[in-house]
């Protein structure tokens, strides 16, 4: 499954000093992912994904956000630097589920 969407980068309030930066997957896509993945989840309910933002591609995990009913995706600093994006910016994100 591949999901392509535009999303605003945001900083996780609980770790603001560490500047953990995320995007939230759309609600409808998150529902489809939950249905597709079924019970195959790793720690914290995470799912392995391959992500592309601009010219950067990497493997990471998405995590369920129970407060909003969506999955969230961390955008690592190296990608933010390479793509010249930061919290508050909008990025086009391509997420492909792998290993589920």
From TrEMBL:
A Pfam family hit: DUF1905
Family annotation (InterPro entries): AF2212/PG0164-like_sf, DUF1905
Originating species: Planotetraspora thailandica
Protein name as annotated: DUF1905 domain-containing protein
């Amino acid at each position: 499954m591949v999901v392509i969407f535009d999303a605003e980068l945001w900083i996780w309030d609980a770790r603001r000093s560490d500047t953990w930066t995320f995007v939230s997957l759309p609600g409808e896509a998150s529902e489809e992912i939950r249905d597709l993945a079924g019970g195959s989840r790793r720690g914290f309910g995470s799912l392995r994904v391959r992500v592309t933002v601009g010219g950067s591609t990497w493997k990471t995990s998405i995590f369920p956000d129970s407060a909003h009913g969506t999955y969230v995706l961390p955008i690592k600093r190296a990608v933010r630097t390479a793509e010249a994006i930061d919290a508050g910016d909008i990025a086009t994100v391509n997420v492909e589920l792998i290993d589920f």
